[in-house]
Every structure is written in C-alpha cells, then in structure tokens.
Amino acid sequence: MTSTTPQNLPFGSILTDVMAIASYKDGRWGEHSLRAVGPIEIHPAAHALHYGSECFEGFKAYRWADGSVHVFRMDRHIERLRQSARSLVLPEPDAAQVAEMVRAVVERCRDAVPEAPGALYLRPLLFGTMPNIGAASTPSNEVCLVVLASPVWDYFAGGAKPLRIYVEEEATRCASHLGVVKTGGNYAAALGPTLVARRLHQVDQVLFCPGGEVQETGAANFLLIRPGHIVTRSLDSTFLHGVTRDSLLRMAADQGYRVEERVFTIDEMLAWARDGEAALSGTAAVLAGVGTLVRKGGVEVKVGAGGVGPETQKLRAALVAIQQGRAADRYGWLTPV
Ligand code: PLP
Ligand code: COI
What is the DSSP letter of 9? Predict the structure, then answer.
C-alpha cells in the first residue's frame, strides 16, 4: 500500500460522483434528482448560513463477500435525521423519500462501495435555504436535502492503534438541549477545545465531562468495558444517541453482558481504567479502543495496559461480522440495496 491508496485517504475526503438532491418550497417536497457531485447554488442570505438551520446523518453501506451491498440501520438513521429536523424546526422529509434517495445513490454508486474493511459512508444533509437575514427567530420555510456518498476506511488514522483522549472537565460540547441533535453547530462548538487539546496534548479526541459527568467525545459515544460488563451514559438530551452504541448494547446484552446505562463520573472512569477498558463507538469510529486518558495539566492515565483491550476487540469484531455479512443479522439491521 502506498500513501496514495484510498485506504490511506482521510475519512470523507473523497466522494462518489453522484448525489441525490431534493427541495422543499411552498409547503411541499419536490421529487429528488440525481446529479453529478459539485457546487450547488445557494443564496448568501440562506437561513442555514446565518442561523445554523442544518442537520445531517452518517451511516454505511457494506459490500459483502458475494458482491451484494447492504445498508446498516438505515431506518434508525433516517428517523434521527427527522428528529434533528424537528428540533431545528425544519420541514421534515418523509422517511420513505430519504430512503429512496439513499437507495438511488447507492445503486448508482454500487461500483464505488469498497470491499471490507472499507464501506460507503452515506451523508444525508438537510439545510434551510430561505433567503431572509432577518429570520433569526423564524424557521426556514425552504430547505434543501442532499445525499452524498464517500468510500471510507478507518476514521482514526492509525486504525487499530489505541486512542489518546483528553478529559475535558468543564466545557460542554454544545448547548445541553442540542446534544441529541446531529447539527453542524455542535461540531463547530467542539472544534476549538479539540484543537487546543490536540496541540497541547497530541490527543485524538476530547471527552466532554461537564460538571465531572462523562458524556461523549466530539464524534463518538463513550463506553467502559470489562468482561461481561458495559457501563455507558444513559440517554438524555445532552449527547447524541448513537446507533452504533444502541447496536453494541443490544448485541452485548444478548451475549450475556450486564449493560448499565447510567450517569457516571470522571472519578469512576479513572478507577475503571486501572484494570478495565474504554472505547469510542460510532459509525465512523466503529468501536475504537482508548489507551490513554489525558487530564488537565497533561497528567496521563493509562486505560488497562494502554492498548486496545480484548473485550473491545471482541465486541468490535462481532458487530463488524454482522455488518459485513459474515454473521447472521438476527436483528434485521441490514437493508439490501
Ligand atoms: N456522538 C457524536 C457527537 C457523533 O458525531 C457520532 C457519530 O455519528 C456519534 C456519537 C455516534 O453515533 P452513531 O453511532 O449513530 O454513528
Ligand atoms: C459518524 O460517525 O457518522 C460521524 O458523524 C462522525 C463524523 C463527524 C465524521
């Protein structure tokens, strides 16, 4: 493999050449069309550009060994997009319309779906296009829905390397009622603290723990793992309800793990780190082991032996086997396209 093979490209840096696009105007959604990926015209007064009325999703289509292509938990992701739209007071697209657009893109880009361990990352994007710079307290009554696709491999450069995570004890990732919404502003809000932590401590991500309670990182959920036991924060409005988190918890419970969803503190996490494991879960992250927690002032705490723990590897392998069609999909999570 050379430095120019697709596997080495940063996650999301290449797109397929086709996207689906639809718009909402005068109280109704129009039919979608398939277009070459490229710039689209957007009015500089568009609501999303000024007032952040934007949300998106991220999920993957997998190529199985027999060549067939399957999308993982598409319905759940589309439902989350609709929830995000509702929170931002954007017109909600029909679930059927989004699914049709996703299918249309995957069908047209079928040849671009990488073989395992790659996947085609699907990125529906919804944003307010109403041109009115006075509309700070008025929802956008015009929106655009786009579905992009990107052949992807590892999200974290280094693949199976254990992650270094900065434990942020004060700052929040975003406004506390918006954590559950997958909106661009949340990522913008986390960017500053993430860059500072990266520069000072060479970490991969920031784990937001406002008030000493562990929440999530800038782009993934956070799990404490031990043989037969998982602890993760219980669902509330402050963080994104990850579909990967949900999938792992269901699989683990069925395998006999005790799954505890509850609030836990930094102190408890540090005690767990003495002999337990920690990992990040997400569509992009899959299940990525945490090797080191870095605290304020640069104090480093190893998680277990500092590598990717065996339970983390086992759970990741079990999930990926379902996604890649090497284990039975007893949950009905995959949609063939
Ligand atoms: N939390 C944040 C902030 C994320 O960006 C993501 C990624 O989508 C997740 C959690 C994990 O969500 P999911 O497993 O649905 O991809
Ligand atoms: C995902 O896992 O789908 C994400 O949204 C992470 C990301 C910001 C690339």
Answer: S
Amino acid at the residue 50: H
The backbone region for 325, taken as left when phi is positive above 0, alpha when psi lies in -120 to 50, beta otherwise, is left
Full-model pTM: 0.96
| pLDDT (tens digit per residue) in 53-89 | 999 999 999 999 999 999 999 999 999 999 999 999 9
Contacts of residue 225, Cβ cutoff 8 Å, sequence gap at least 6? 276, 277, 278, 279, 309, 311, 312, 315
Q: Which domains does the chain have, with CATH numbers?
A: 6-152 (3.30.470.10), 163-323 (3.20.10.10)
And the tokens for 270? Answer: 């540090």
Helix (H, G, I), strand (E, B) or coil at 193: helix
Say how many Å lie between the CA of residue 203 and the centre of ligand 1.
Answer: 19
For residue 244, give the ligand 2 atom closest to its CA. Answer: 2
For residue 232, the ligand closest to its alpha carbon is 1
